[in-house]
Amino acid sequence: MARFVIRRVISMVLVLFAISVLTFLIFQAIPNGDPAVRLAGRTATPEQIELIRQSWGFDDPLWQQYLTTMGKILSGDVISYTQQLSVMSQIKQALPATLSLSIGAGIIWLFFGIVFGLFSAIKAGKFTDRALTVLALIGVSTPVFLLGAVALYFLAFKVQIFPNGGYVPLTQDPIDWLYHMLLPWMVLSVLFIGVYSRVLRSNVLDTMSEDYVRTARAKGISEKRVMVRHVLRNSMIPIISLWSLDFAAVLGGGAILTESVFNLHGVGQYAADSIQQLDVPPVLVVVMLGASAVVVLSALTDVLFAFLDPRIRLTG
Amino acid sequence: MGTAPDYLDPQLAYTTQAVEAHWISYTGLLTYRHEEGEPGTQLIPGLADALPRISDDGKTYEFTLRRGLRYSDGTAVRASDYPYSIERMIRIPWGGRSFVTNYVVGAADFDAGRARSVSGITADDATGRITIRLREAYGAFSNVLAFPALAFVPRGTAIRNLSNDPPPGVGAYILTDVVPNRSFTLRKNPEFASFRIPDIPTGNLDTIRVNIVSNTNSEAQQVLNNQADIFDSGDTLPPALLPQIESQARDRFARKPVPSTFYFFLNTTKPPFNNEKARIAVNMAMDRDALSRIASGFLETDCFFIPRGIVGHPTSECPYGDRPDLAGAQRMLRDAGLEGAPVTVWGQERSPRKEYIDYYTDLLNKIGFRATERIIADTVYFPTIGNARTDPQTGFADWLQDFPNPSDFYLLMDGRSIQPTNNQNFSKVNDPFIQRELRRLNAVPATELDSVADEWAALDEYTARRAYVAVYGAEAVPKFFSNKLNFDSVFHPLYFNDWSTLSLR
Is pLDDT of A76 > 60? Predict the structure, then answer.
């Protein structure tokens, strides 16, 4: 276990380093991405631009700029170029909305993905299976921004049974929080439910034809027990692997479109705004946050795998 | 509000979204009349007791501070706060500080760290007298003094970004409860009415809460359903919702033209637009009505560089006609031997600017050029086309007034504005006649602009005849309220919805 943790920590540091360097370099490579010119404003003189370049250190060698920025990120002192606000406080402010979205939607898509996938596999080839297949394909192929806009138009603007976007903190009013989160949860979950149900259906069908399932049935174990203990448990491994990666991506600011459409002011929306402004520090922080979430959750998933399937060991 | 203000610290802010809040919370020595149209461009005394006393050489401005003024935190306003406020604005630094550093004695040295204070500004707390000395006469300087960024803040206010907790100011409203990029509140300043400043409204609503909504569809839908009260005029109304708004909310929606110039620049130093005939051909062929349709009617067509609502806007006919003359333009290009000349057209991504460029590129090809588009990200667009290394032939450009003075627009036609980086004179116009006229007209004080209106108009007619740019109009913005608000509030030409004149039905 100790070796596993050490290996994971080392790989996480390497991944974060590589991602931060790449992100930093991408922003340097963009033509006329010179932040001094943008910070100076449209009427600035060349002398004023030069003064900004010097005071912000934009004229330092690239490696030094990278180290300075990373130093500020790690010490929590990093500020954005465009609004000169603390990036950490902005992310702290945005995190509750992103957590609310990702945890709620994550539970919904995992639950319905399993239910629909299992049901579809049990009823394979029948009308229910075909109907669920069509629904899953619709879910997979509908972009979040379109579904979100349509849902808001009909359910929030026309019928007015849901609020038209916005986020209410859980600590402020739990009922209002739930009321504001329901639509974003549903919209974000649709795509994932489609994918998960299709993957699980296929896994369950494969597992059902395994020898050990036939053996379990031959031993007279009840069908419910066979399905839950033998089929579902073994079919869940790729689902958990997928879920941890998707959940981590959403948690790390990946739900840019959902957050923007529903005006949740989460980490994803902050990232989108910063990318639009070519504001390197917030983008770097959000990218590293996302990468950390992916690496940590993927490590936790490996531990869970060992629990689900004793053949998988954390050593080696 | 669909776009967050750039800053809520008044001495850092530049965008419309910020100044519409700052205008009524931070008053400077001068401000603008709270009226619609051209009357709204008229300067009035703010915290000064009268308009400036300007010396004959136009280089010294004298003011006297009103008595009994207090900041929103109760501190007394002193004349010596003013030099401090200006120094804070330069040091912090405000994006438009070159309007001050280029003209005020000692300001450039202070900006560069060569001086400890701005020597050209002196103040006497006992008499309330404030004197500002300029290096050279600059007629628009009174307009510069009316920027909210040059308003009073108490001496000792921290010289760092205070957007999260804006400093005290003097105004009808107090900016408070800021949650960056999410919301802020304007609370009525109960003391302001007691200052009895003429022509500055004291406000009707007790509280104005501003929410930043990233999805302008939602923003418009909420106003249409009366769940929110104002669609911010700085945002673009979703075209898909426009017919519904026009039919259901006819009595609370209007298109309001704002003094601005939308044009295609034509680089006069580079083929083919170094040939006047090529530039005239573009102006002849352009269908401004088509561009207005592309903008869903949010463009008021025009062919002159000084827009309507600004002193000096010509009233004459367009020199190359109001109706597009494609055949004439094709003939002119053929005669000039420029058929098939390659042209790269630069444009921005955002709508409808991208669509303007689609139309324009198509038009250039119809005239006879061989035009191709080059669309780049909005954020880097102006730094890119303003860089000498790019040296673009033609493309999209716009100018929204910094202040209502023709000299602000002619900054873009001034040969001295041609810079290797951050160039704003995209057509690279360096015309001796324009330079001579600008030297004379730029020195006329803003308070006496009407006396030279005809001369500005004559200069603008000359520019249009030389076809240095292809102007197609001024932007219109939406005024769109819920049915809870009276629709007769002031729509100011510079600061859009005047929140201090809002009232409930």
Answer: yes
User: Which residue of A30, A44, A277 is in closest CB contact with B422?
Assistant: A44
The total number of structural domains that make up chain A: 1
Nearest to A83 among B96, B163, B222 (CB): B163
The sign of the CA dihedral A45, B10, B398, B260 is negative
CA angle, B23 then B26 then B31, to 5°: 55
Place of tokens 């629904």: A135
Contact list in B for residue A33 (CB cut-off 8 A) is 380
Tens of pLDDT, residue by residue over A30-46, are 765 678 877 777 677 78
Tell if the CB–CB gap between B180 and A83 is shorter than 8 Å: yes
More confident residue, B389 or B124: B124
Check CB contact under 8 Å for B213 and A37. Answer: no
The span from the first CA to the last CA of chain B, in angstroms, equals 22
Instruction: Assess if CATH 3.40.50.300 describes domain B16-208.
Output: no
CB A80 within 8 A of CB A87: yes
- Is residue A316 over pLDDT 50? no
pLDDT at A313: 62
Q: What CATH number corresponds to the domain at position A149?
A: 1.10.3720.10
What is the residue extent of each domain of chain B?
Answer: 16-208, 260-477
Among B183, B221, B378, the strongest candidate for a mutation testing the A interface, having the largest count of A CBs within 10 A, is B221
B295/B475 Cα distance (integer angstroms): 9
- The top-level CATH class assigned to B260-477 is alpha beta
Q: Measured between alpha carbons, how far is B246 from B239 in angstroms, rounded to an integer? A: 11
Give, for B257, the enclosing helix (H) or strand (E): strand B253-257
Report the residue of chain B nearest A279, measured CA to CA: B379
Q: How many Cβ atoms from other residues are within 10 Å of residue A154's Cβ?
A: 13
Position A10 scores a pLDDT of 87
Q: Which 3 state secondary structure label does DSSP give B447?
A: helix
Contact A49 B422 (CB under 8 A): yes
Q: Do the interacting molecules here have an ipTM over 0.85?
A: no
Range of the domain at A183: 92-265
CB interface of B with A, residues 110-149, below 8 Å? 111-112
Peptide bond between residue B239 and the one before it cis (omega within 30 degrees of 0)? no
